[in-house]
Design brief:
Number of domains: 2
CATH topology of the largest domain: ABC transporter transmembrane region fold
Radius of gyration: 37 Å
Largest sheet: 6 strands, mixed
Structural class: alpha/beta
Low-confidence stretches: 1-31, 37-54, 80-94, 96-127
Amino acid sequence: MSWYLGVLKKYAVFTGRARRKEYWFFALFHLIASVSLILVDNLTGTYDPTYALGLLSGIYTLAVLIPALAVVVRRLHDTDRSGWWVLIALVPLIGGIVLLVFLCLDSSPGENRYGTNPKLETAKTNKEAMNTGYKTYLRLLKYATPYGFIFILGALAMLVYALTDTGFVYLIKTLTDNFAGTTDGAYIGEWKFSLPIAVIVIFIIRGISGFFSVYNIGWIGRQVIKALREEVFTKFLHLPTSYLDHKSNAELLSKVTFNIEQVAESTSNTITVLIRDTLTIIALTAYMVYLSPRLAGVIFLVAPVIALIVRFLGTLFRRYSERIQDSMGDVTHLIKETLHNHRIIKIFNGQDYESAKFEQVNEDNRKHNMKLFSTKAIGDAVTIFVASLGVAGVVYVATLGEVKDMEIGNFTGFITAMVLLMTPLKRLTNVNAMIQRGIAASASIFLLIDEEDEIDDGEIEGEDLTGKIEFRKVSFSYSKEQSNALSDIDLTIQSGETLAIVGKSGSGKTTLINLLPRFYDITKGKLLIDGVVVDNYTLISLRNNISLVTQEVILFNDTIFNNVAYGPFTEEQTLKAISAANMDEFVDKLPDGLQTKVGDQGILLSGGQRQRIAIARALLKDAPILILDEATSALDSESERYIQTALEKLMKDRTTLVIAHRLSTVETADRIVVLSDGEIVESGSHGELIKQNGEYALLHRLQFNDET
């Protein structure tokens, strides 16, 4: 308590000796700070008079505390009790600044005597978004926790880097004192060789520490990105089919490429700048306080205003970053779509139309980026302007009688440190933009990672299944808003039976077979395989018992052999499947045979060749349940004849579901069911259905007439 009273006494002495002009200067500065504070806070949508008054009280408290502490620090120095006591004296000052900045970053909007602020809801939304942003960034940084030792080494290198600036300022102070004649000439003479060497050593240390700080943090950043990419890719493999069907591939691709690279900047460059420049500012500020506490106090007064500017800009940075990411998704989507559909575009001469669409989305992306750049540029200018007010204050106070007795070396060192503060201060303003971009990108990635995986809570391992399938009053809808795609399906398929499913387009044929491997889960009813509800099987074991050939052939950009042998199969098994699918006929004509690359989605092969690869893959799996969804639709008549012969042999003693528009391919099926608007309207053999003269007979006649 006596120490505190002593501080107040010293401050009273200081204020008693202050000039009237000095009072006017501080009063004017406080007025500008007050107006700026209320204006900026109102622009952010969080205006609250109580909060504003609280911040102003904090500013005035610091205005009183800084000169008082300045006197104490100088007194400790004059009595040879500096050293670590100086740091103790600075603790309340640093604590006050941190508290004030925290208030700026964590304001809470509320009501006042005039009622609820009209911007209250917007303010709450901004605050929630800000809190979410902090949580998102903290979650992102958790990916770096395994590399704590590397981070500590990098942080130590940053500390050394920060101290080199202070060392350089000390050299400038020493040289200035010598040139001004305030230092013993013999003293500087002893250092006439050492000082130049010291300058070289400082910059060597600066270069080495800068390298290790950037390299270590960059290494951690790339490790984080690697882990994130692997987690997102693994997530893709386990997302429900329903999610993937409703999302654009380009949008998901953009998350793995563009968004994650935005995160990379937040976890490497941002951390480097944030820590290194903060340490630099602290080191230079501490030295400025040591040289002249009173002048340093003037600089400290602008800190709250800069904090508010950074806070306000952060909201804009994140908003524009989210828009940039969305627009990049649009750009990626259009490019991917154009490359995939290039034949249609060319045959219909759609180049101009696609160019116009791309120009529009590209222009939108440019505009969003320019908004971000302009905001950042304005933020830099405003920050430097506010900092210049502090510099102007220092210059003004330096002309007063109170500091005229200040040594020229101390003043030069102070000005040098103040100038060196500008660059890290500007970078710290810009780092907020990088952080907000990283937060926006991380949020979109974490939303994807937090999506529910496919439901896989079954415990039964489906081994040696016979393939009996039962649909009991099964209904299915793709969403609650849509009508049922399937309604009250009652159907039993015996083990080894071949069932053909026919009907008009959109009748529910593909939807029905998608329920078997649980690409979609039924809405109502029960679906059983071998008397067990499919939900009770583990997904892996369930799908191990099902082979699928879809209407749209799915091939990987790999060799023909690897596309067929997609799984743990021997070469002998693969060659048998290739032969059974009648692939020898075209493989033998290829220069590289089975090692021929098929291209993206098999673009280098014909439709019939692609279809036969898919059939061979299904035959190789040799599962008890075989699903053929338009499996022979892309084959010519001769190839189809060979395939049909192979399929008849392989479908024996195997439950087979065949979907086909060409009714001639299902005439030999054990049973045919006809779907219409998601319901079974007819069931029986080909001959029975023809005799019924119903919908199947109508479809058959229409196709027969078309073929003839």
